[in-house]
Amino acid sequence: MKRLEILRDHPPDSYQRLLREASHECRKAALGHDWSTIELQLKQEGVQCLLARDHQYSNQFEYLAMPEMWVAGDGRPHSLYLEFTIARTTPDIDPCAQPGVVSVAAARPET
What we know:
This protein is of the alpha+beta class. The chain is 31% helix and 36% strand. The radius of gyration is 15 Å and the shape is elongated.
């Protein structure tokens, strides 16, 4: 997710634009790709995993991508998080299943 590195170094002029560009980059870089490749890339970039959750038919991960990505006018910092869901279903359960592939990739601000 090289574009996220660029956003860290040269953030856009508005919070909304930064969130939009991070969201597009996250989806473009991860959606439909093998999770092991994405996970390795995140580790190499030093992105911190905050949550790893196993569900019956999926795994969910949350990463802190950009701490204090934006500082509001009142001085309160906001961080950027990346969320991923990886399918675990197999073709015997769902003929269209793609186990190990990222099915949801999203960027979100601190809430």
